[in-house]
Amino acid sequence: MNETEKTLLQLVGRALFGARTGFDPASVSWAEVYEECGSQALTLLVWDALTEEERACLPGELSRRWEQDAMRHIISNEQLAYEQRQVIETLTGAGIPCVILKGTSSALCYPNPALRAMGDIDLLVSPAQQREAVRLLQRQGYGDALDENHHCHLTIVKDGIDVEVHREVNGLLLVDDAASLRKFRDFFADALERRQTADGLPMLADDPQAVSLRLHKLEHFLLSGLGLRQLCDWAVFVEKKLDAALWQRLQPMLAEVGILYFTGVITRVCVDYLGLPERYAPWAMEYDGGLAREVMEQLLREGNFGRKTDKYGERLFSNPGASNRVTSFFKVLLSVCRTHWPVCERHPLLLPIAPFAVLGQYLANRRQGKRPKLNLLQKYRQSGADRELYKQLRPFIPEK
Fold first, then answer.
1. What is the gyration radius of the CA atoms in the chain, in angstroms?
2. Residue-wise pLDDT tens digits, 166-212
3. Strand 161-166 relative to strand 153-158: parallel, antiparallel, unpaired?
4. Contact 98, 202 (CB under 8 A)
């Protein structure tokens, strides 16, 4: 971890928890800190945390550019917040219950919710009403649904704003075990009925929100890259909502479906590197500090949603539940076929030809510029180190 990264982490800890910082502003390479903020989607949060002394150390042009970027984030957040309320009013007015996933529901845990950069609008509706919700929003000016074969949502766009209409939470495509998948789906089955209201908006109740956050973070960590912004979301949730009673309720569930260890390590990362006071998660200190350091180094290396690296396709070879990378390839390919060619679930005899159907879908999307080029040999070579780290985190391996 270099000095720029250490400085950034101290500033994030100050912004989230008022943690003390210990660096000389005059010795900091502020241009590098600014670039790192951009790669981690923390430009606005860190700008607001800077002291007058620190801002005085910024070169004039850098100070103007950073402030302008921060203002753009504020305006974008306001536009997204306005559109989100309009969308929710449209759906609920038509009798379609929904709840916000991520985004605003995470922002409300921040000391200043306006400083959490929003990217799009994520809403959960019942699977039976997903298509109806999309059609309703299309009549309000949204375009054709994208990602028709996505495992959990359909995306529609209007004026540059993406709305992801979910039929289930992120992360369940990673669950290979049928019994564990059933437990997750049973856990979320009444999420819409149990919804709560915060700031006048429908949110998941605390228990399903905690599990949804863990699944979402794990999905990004294994597939595209988990950045500091997603880590901040979990850190502030732990401080604001994960009290002893909630943790006691969640622990058996997390252990049973195999995400307790990942939760412990990630929370240890928040304590060790983001300034989360240990008193909010004393149990996290039982987890491996060395492994927490490895996780943090990967987050810094990959950036927000993995924007510093290209991990597309690496998942094929990095399944931690497989005995080796070749076995991983076939195991993940089978899962991809079931997800992207759902007819296989109803007619298993089609599985032998499913890879060809999925390959055809990929090539069609590739021609339309929706998917990057995939070099399997390169991904095989790249996946080794990540796979070893993933195995240490024991995702979806039930604990007693």
1. 21
2. 999 988 877 877 788 889 999 999 999 999 999 999 999 999 999 99
3. antiparallel
4. yes
Q: What is the DSSP letter of 156?
A: E
- Report how far residue 86's alpha carbon sits from residue 123's, in angstroms, rounded to the nearest whole number: 13
Q: H-type helices in the chain, by residue range?
A: 3-17, 30-39, 43-49, 52-56, 60-93, 103-107, 130-138, 178-188, 206-223, 228-240, 244-257, 260-273, 289-302, 325-340, 343-346, 354-367, 376-393
Task: Specify the DSSP class assigned to residue 145.
Answer: P
Classify residue 62 by burial, with Cβ atoms within 10 Å: 0-12, 13-18, 19+.
Answer: middle
260: region left, alpha or beta (phi > 0 left; psi from -120 to 50 alpha): alpha
Bin 20: left if φ > 0, else alpha if -120 < ψ < 50, else beta.
Answer: beta
Find the farthest-apart pair of alpha carbons in the chain and give their distance in angstroms, rounded: 68
Considering only CA atoms, which of 56, 51, 262 is closest in space to residue 175? 262
Q: Is 61 exposed, middle or buried (0-12, 13-18, 19+ CB in 10 A)?
A: exposed
Of 129, 73, 128, 120, which is closest to residue 100 (Cα–Cα)? 120
Are 306 and 39 in contact, with CB atoms under 8 Å apart?
A: no
Are 212 and 194 a contacting pair, CB within 8 Å?
no
Nearest to 301 by CA among 16, 11, 36: 36
Q: Give the CA-trace dihedral at 13, 221, 340, 121, to 10 degrees.
A: 0
Mean residue pLDDT across the chain = 86
User: Beta strands 121-124 and 99-100: pairing type?
Assistant: antiparallel
**Nearest 5 degrees, angle CA 146-CA 314-CA 273?**
95
pLDDT-based confidence at residue 137 (cuts at 50, 70, 90): very high
Give the residues across from 166 on adjacent strands.
124, 153
Task: Give the model's pLDDT for residue 384.
Answer: 64
Report d(CA 392, CA 400) in Å as an integer: 17
Q: Distance between CA 76 and CA 101 in Å, rounded?
A: 18
The pTM for the full model equals 0.86
Task: Say which amino acid occupies 142.
Answer: Y
